[in-house]
Structure formats: C-alpha cells, structure tokens
Structure prediction request, 150 residues.
Amino acid sequence: MTNQTAANDTARAATHTPARRRMIRAGALAASAAALLGALAAAPAQASWGGELQACKDAYGSQYYMGWDIPTVVLRKGSSGVCVRELQEELLEAGAVRSEDQPGFIDGAFGPKTYNAVVNFQRRAFGEAGTDGVVGRNTWHHLIATVYFE
Prediction:
C-alpha cells in the first residue's frame, strides 16, 4: 500500500464515523421513500375515484396508508359534511346498509343509520374485535378497497 492510499483510507475512516454512516443511510432511506411515494401519487387508478372522495381529501387532507391515498378525517356520530356523504355512498356501494335503512340514507349526517352501516361493515371487515363505529384510516382503507378494487 502506498503512502497516499494509506492517507486516503485514514481520512475516509475519520469522516465516516458510525454517526455519519447512520446519517448517510437515513438520507438514502428518505430518498427511497420519497421516490416510492411519488410513484404512488401518480397511480392511475386513484385518478378515477369519485369527486366527493377527492373533495373530502382536499378539505381534510389525505395520507398514504398501505399504498393507498385515503382521507385523514376521522368520522363518528355527530359528524356531517361532504366526507360523511362520501362515506354513506361508499357504504351503500359496499352493501353495508340494511335495506330498511336505504331510503334517505345519503344525507351527509352521521346518525344512527350511518353508525349501523359502519358497524356492519367493520364487523365484516375486521370481525367483532374491530367494531367501534368510528371511521378512521383502517376503515377508510378497507372501505375503499372493497368498493374500488373488489
């Protein structure tokens, strides 16, 4: 080994401490994650989703969860608005609404009929243990998967 090579190796070892190597790996991981999220954002299947779902995501934000862009809004009894209306449409499409609850179901208000439909859907999707009547990211994810991809 020449003196110049030895000097280069010593300098490299001094600048690549364990903390520096962790920072380099974290930077590479962040760049990979950003590239993946960019690719998922351009997914053509999501561009065709309903206008009210997009309006809900625009109003309340969205995040990628298990590879899908889903609304971040959490809905429960007493909620109202465009996101509840979208939820009601998706529940109806998914077959979670009882026939006696269907007339006047889509009204944009999270009342007893919507609660019953959410619990019914959650029971089918998650079993009894996952039934709480609150629509969070897991319920949104499974509902969107059921309606758009099954």
